[in-house]
Amino acid sequence: MPSGDVPEMFGTCQSAGLTDAEAQRRLARFGPNVIATKERAGTLALLLNQFMSPVVSLFAAAGALSLYFGDWQEATAIIAVLAINTGLGFSTELRAARSVEGLRALGTRSARVRRDGHARVLPAEDIVPGDIVLVEGGDAVPADIRLVEASNLGADESTLTGESVPVDKAPEPVAPDARLAERTCMLFRGTLITRGSGLGIVVATGLGTELGAVARLVAQAEPDTSPLERRLERLSRQMVWVILALALVLAGLGVATGKDLRLMTEAGIALAVAAIPEGLPVVATLALARGMWRMARRNALIERLSAVETLGATTVILTDKTGTLTENRMTVRWLSVPSGEADPTDPGSAAAETGRLLRVAVLCNDASLGQDSQQGSGDPMEQALLRAGRAVGLDRAALLRDRPLVGKHAFDAGTRMMATVHAVEPGHWVAVKGAPEAVLAASRSVGGAERDVPLDDGARDLWRRRVEDLAARGLRVIACAERSGGAAGGHPFRDLTFLGLVGLEDPARSDVPEALAACRAAGIRVVMVTGDHAVTALSIARAVGLAGRGDRVVEGGSTGEIPGRLDEVAVFARVSPAEKLSLVRAYQAKGEIVAMTGDGVNDAPALKQADIGVAMGRRGTDVAREAAAMVLMDDAFPTIVGAIREGRIIFDNIRRFAAYLLACNLSEVMIVGLAIVSALPLPIQPLQILYLNVVTDVFPAFALAMCEGRDDILARPPRDPREPILGRPQWVRIVLHAAVLTVATFAGLAVAESWFGLDRASSVTVTFLTLAFAQLWQVFNMRASGAKPFRNEVTRNPWVWAALLLCTVLLVGPAYVPAAGKVLGLVPPDATMWAIILGASVAPLLLVQVGTMARGARGPAGRT
């Protein structure tokens, strides 16, 4: 729509604005100009959520039965362990999602608005559709605005569109189907004015803005549970059903053989206590927390504990371009002068021509640089031109002393050029830069090293081909020209001498190719998803080794057509926030575990939807950081690779200690079950089992969680996302190890009662300590298949030795402390009892180690 028709459409006056009364009516109709947020989950709801686990429910039921039968000691111990687990789970989930609240913070500024014929500064939340808003360089745009006036206006929309270069703005209308990044007559809420000034009419506020649309997408993008959470939940369900089935079968057998119902109920409680690995959630939380600390030391800040393990399962990384794969700093990469192309840092024989070209680029410039050339202000492209000039000795301040500035013609969207006028002897000198086609049209000659030559049609075609060549390499191209003589106030864009072209780019980070190679070796596919143009994106993708000659590039608008051909695409360019979200869902629908990187508002929905959202810590917006599960404090892609390695280590360790815990607990189930079936008294009491589980479940399992990873952990492909924590090989080992522990415990009991005739209290003590120490020595059976028996990741782990020492004190101590011994039903062991305990507890370790070495001799090393 022509800008002159917009005021009438919105019922406002361009010169006077809305009246206060009309503004109040519209505020009541449309509501405040804020981004609505979802309510945070309440503390009570998070606490109650901890009791939704099937294992916790079963454990609570066992405690309730103990209370019903008046077994206060056992009930108190069960409730205490339940409280510890619940407290840990509650603390890890207390952090609520605040991604949409980050969006709201972008709008909490004031704005200059024309009301009742006067310019006023109002809170941004009071702005309504139809308000006349005035903006200038440095302002944050408070709402979606249709421009009606603009002077050298530019806006940084990178957080919303992903475009790395500021957008020139003008009131002229655009096509109805223009994409967001191409709507040059619009200003969007949450973006920043980089230069110039303008006036426009508010056309949308609050959730009606483009930023509001992103907020709605974020609210809809509910992240799925992590792979670890899904696996632990599946394992818990399986355990509950197995425990219930065992309890019913064994209780039925007991009642059928004439045993008392209450006795069988108590046996069922003992069975449940024995089967439930109380330490599993505790140790899993601690293992994930340790991984979080290790990642933080490597510049990866984890926002959600479960994200630590999710990284290790990642199969696809959807990465942004600007600042992640590139340095996020425009750089002059190539110069094209009449004699050919030249390196800006080493012009060689073309030094005279490149000197003329860069002199114009430095003087026809509104930016500034600091002393170290790294810090500056103004348009990033103009800063890059100043750096290129300084690199060859052309400092703007020194040049201005020789050629004082006497006039300036700001960049205009109509002419697509900018000019500065300088005083020289005699007369004036004009420096011009702008779009290549515009500068060529305004030129009549070409500046050579020795003399200027006319610019005929053949020469113009040559320069156009050079422009196309530089653009095909992904470079942003501008042209420079000059003119000597004439008055300072004359028309600057005529009779110019064309000096050449400047090709700029945001260069690739030097450490990215190696990181991408590591991803390929690890079987992880990396895909670029960016808001930039396809040519620029493909150029960077090829520079870092992400894309080859045969890889496809797909531009936004067609992403909805390719869910079945995702493997063929290396780069998605010109992608909108909704399309990024759709891409993440499309990969997830194919069974992939998706990591998504981003830094802007436009990335927030996809970051939240992804299995692991990765935000940039240095340049990322609050919105992106709140939506993500991990924040890169150094904005470096290689940090992601290091985090993936840590995630794989953590999964291996979780699998290791889960197998350890279940083997120990299954041995207790077998002991209780065999006692019930064989009509023997329970060789180990429920309270003893609970104490044993608290000691041997937590400390040795946590020590196993501290194992360092194998050197080749990134040389293997990612796990199948459907692979459980414990697969068939692990379950086979668990059952075999549990059986060996069970046999050793009953052997110790048999020797104590049959050979040495020990009384009931002594034989129970032998049984308890035999099983306890056999479980402690079980940690050495958790080395990887093929690892050396005496030098492996377990024996090299100092935490393992510390845990064994601590557990030994905790297990032996109660037997020699009368009060504790009375509660647990233990007596002080004598020399005979210790001989039985040590002999029976070491036997399973030796037997399993011999079997492991025999299996290792038959085949190659495998996973833990």
Could you describe the 3D structure shown?
By secondary structure, the chain is an alpha+beta fold. It has four domains: 3-37 and 102-220, Calcium-transporting ATPase, cytoplasmic transduction domain A, CATH 2.70.150; 277-296 and 649-858, Calcium-transporting ATPase, transmembrane domain, CATH 1.20.1110.10; 300-327 and 509-635, 3-Layer(aba) Sandwich (Rossmann fold), CATH 3.40.50.1000; 331-505, Calcium-transporting ATPase, cytoplasmic domain N (3-Layer(aba) Sandwich). The strands form four sheets. Strands 10, 11, 14, 15, 16, 17, 18, 19 and 20 form a nine-stranded mixed sheet that branches. Helix 4 runs antiparallel to helix 10 (261-275), helix 26 packs antiparallel against helix 27 and helix 26 runs parallel beside helix 29. The two termini are 66 Å apart. 49% of the residues are buried. The model is unreliable at 95-108 and 860-864 (pLDDT under 50).
